Amino acid sequence: MDNYLLQIHNGQVIPRADIPQVPYDVFYTELSAFVKNEGFIVQYFAYQEENANRLLAVVRNSAGLFVIGTETGRTFKSLTGAVSEKFHMFEREIAEQYGLKPDGHPWLKMVRYHKNYSGEEDVFGNNYSAEIPGNYPYFKVDGQAIHEVAVGPVHAGIIEPGHFRFQCAGEEVLHLEIQLGYQHRGIEKMMPTMPQKRFPIICETIAGDTTIGHNLCLCQAMESLSGKNVDKGAKIVRSIALELERICNHIGDLGALSGDVAFNPPAAYFGRLRGEFLNLLQVLSGNRFGRGLVRPGGVAHVMGDEQRQLIRAKLAETTPEIEHVCDLLFTAHTVLARFEHTGTVKHEMAKDLGLVGYAGRACNIGYDARVSFPTEMYGELPPNSNHVTQGDVLSRATVRREEIMHSLKIINMLLDKPETTAAPVQMEDCALKPDSFVVTINEGWRGEVSHCVLTDSSGKVQRYKIKDPSFHNWTGLAMSLRNQEISDFPLCNKSYNLSYCGFDL
Fold first, then answer.
1. Residue 171 lies in a domain
2. What is the pTM of this model?
3. CATH of the domain at 266
4. 3-class state of residue 220 by DSSP
5. What's the Cα-to-Cα distance from 334 to each of 137, 142, 233, 328, rounded to whole Å?
6. Looking at the domain assignment, is residue 161 inside a domain?
7. Phi/psi of residue 186, each to 5°?
8. Count of domains observed in the chain
9. Three-state secondary-structure class, residue 106
10. Per-residue pLDDT tens for 82-121?
11. Which domain holds residue 342?
12. Residues 242 and 382 in one domain
């Protein structure tokens, strides 16, 4: 059989004419064979061109990245029902955005609640509306002893909105259905309409805790499309910022997990340490979340000797503290009793769903974009390794601990490099290559972050596609609640700590 998939590289600009455009039956066959042979989906989305509906897929395996495209009518054969669950969220998104129906999709429902871009009637039927969140038939389990618990979308405190519907037999959860979309802002549709100077500001707010991860994907795409070069000093700063962002979030979540099992000393300790690393991002960028740092062509703030010394001194101070509090948490038998065998997702299930990041690595899926598709300085840095990969809360927590220690190590390695940024850069309009395509991938703290850009014949952005790792992993959280007690939900939820706004876009 002919292979129609075109191999590409992370951040490589290619002419759109080079993307294989095949009939849908060939597209279906190629993707079916690919995902059944240890392949995973990076991007799969629709766009309109010359009054035609087109689909484009970017996929990956151990051999690299590949792209393929097709044209489709209003209805196309679903890959979810017959081939793989990896497609299920992507096809739902295609249906919502462009009114194209994946025929045979086993559970077709809204993702984010908005009228589709094409202006056509929705394909979800008349039983619920795109303008009324959650107004659709939820999955139901029947039985005399079955009861239903609905939580959200409004939660206590500052938790973001999401609806969780549990089907239970007593305390046991038989099924959890998660419905999001309450924070949909229309970012993808907005991007082609905005001036370039707004691009980084928008992408920094896709998910506030992944400021560096998302903005790095944007800036790398813009650099490739405009031919901008980035000096080594700026790459060092970008890599340090991405690792500081990783440490901040992992430390914060280990503290939250401590609180969820009522082990308050580590919760307080981790909370204080998270603040230390947020402050290091401020040292690096002037902002505790890293906003305003990464810009196309480099960074907006130079890291001088003073910043290097402050970061190095704080790492030396906090590393033994992190080791100590981690030992306190992971050796407490009361903690282990709650973490072990809770919220388990088996390796095969994780592969079927296409889990990424620490959620995937905790299930013994060894994928890390820093290793498979290295950008910035990652080609010169050692990879991490994970030793507890049983797919439960303990595994997800342990992977985070290992990633914290690895990030501390590689930040010190980056600080030892003598190169400095030549000069700070600011966002400015630049000419983009016309009729071009680029996909960028980075390992954000939750996992694989990816942005795709298609430009038109005048070099304007025609389609901007964003994928947060949470897009893959929310279904993993739902599966981790199967046959667990409903009281385990906060612990499972925090062990993933997925993004609502990064998903809702």
1. no
2. 0.95
3. 1.10.645.10
4. helix
5. 40, 36, 46, 11
6. no
7. 75, 35
8. 2
9. coil
10. 899 999 999 999 999 999 999 999 988 888 877 777 666 6
11. 198-429
12. yes
